[in-house]
Design goal:
Helices cover 45% and strands 23% of the residues. By secondary structure, it is an alpha+beta fold. A four-stranded antiparallel β-sheet has the order 3-1-2-9, sandwiched between helices. The chain is globular. The chain starts with 7 loop residues before the first helix and ends with a helix.
């Protein structure tokens, strides 16, 4: 995992597009609702909810909105009957893709996901076809220029599993899902401000894309994320900076 931050360029592009499309709050609220429903409303006892709250607040969601979403999920307020479904498939360039959906209509969702793969030249796979390539981990990222030694000391004391310094000077802190909140609290207390913090699916291998396959892959990701039922898209694509710059 050493080198440059493998998904930073794609993640930043995705975040900007989510905000531009006005879909960010919808996705954040859904994650809060389902996290509270599946693990309970106490973020100290529910690492997934804790991560969702951190992500919502960093996305400028108000605490009132967060609290209402949590109450919907825990049954204190009426809410939609959503369930989480994960689809797996293969994208352009041999990429592995996992699509996390929240839906009240499985048929509608799988049709949209399958069409997105087919139109990109990829295909929807079976359960387990690519999930073995991913591990659920907490990732807390810091911009270039931070004090790497200080972050490493605070992170490891807080219970982090690993700290990676990237070629551009950015730093990624890895945690177990259960320790995500504890580690982030330790880093926050040290005065370190993360640019991204989430519990995500980290790939064990990368598929490097070139100028021909990268646009096709990004169209797949865009199509999937445009679908209202799609919550998160995880993948193992690595688009080199020079290729990404040529697409912007």
């Amino acid at each position: 995992m050493a080198g440059h931050s493998k998904w930073a360029n794609i993640k930043h592009r995705k975040a900007a597009q989510d905000a531009k499309r006005g879909k960010l709050f919808t996705k954040l609220i859904r994650e809060l609702v389902v996290s509270a429903r599946e693990g309970g409303p106490d973020p100290d006892a529910n690492p997934r909810l804790r991560a969702a709250i951190d992500k919502a607040l960093s996305g400028n969601m108000t605490r009132d909105t967060v609290e209402r979403a949590v109450k919907r999920g825990s049954g204190e307020l009426d809410g939609d009957n959503l369930e989480t479904i994960i689809y797996e498939g293969y994208g352009p360039g041999g990429t592995a893709v996992m699509v996390e959906c929240m839906t009240d209509n499985r048929n509608r969702t799988v049709t949209g996901v399958r069409n997105a793969f087919n139109k990109s030249g990829g295909n929807l796979g079976t359960d387990g076809s690519v999930s073995y390539l991913f591990t659920k981990r907490g990732v807390i990222s810091y911009e270039p220029g931070v004090d790497e030694d200080a972050i490493m000391e605070a992170a490891l004391e807080g219970g982090a599993e690993d700290v990676i310094s990237n070629e551009d000077g950015s730093v990624d802190v890895y945690t177990s899902p259960a320790e995500f909140g504890t580690v982030k609290d330790a880093l926050d207390a040290g005065g370190f401000v993360a640019v991204n913090a989430e519990v995500t699916m980290v790939p064990s291998t990368q598929a490097t894309l070139d100028a021909d396959t990268a646009p096709k892959f990004l169209r797949l990701i865009d199509t999937l994320e445009d679908h209202d039922d799609v919550q998160e898209v995880y993948h193992n694509a690595d688009i080199p900076d020079d290729v990404m710059e040529g697409l912007e």
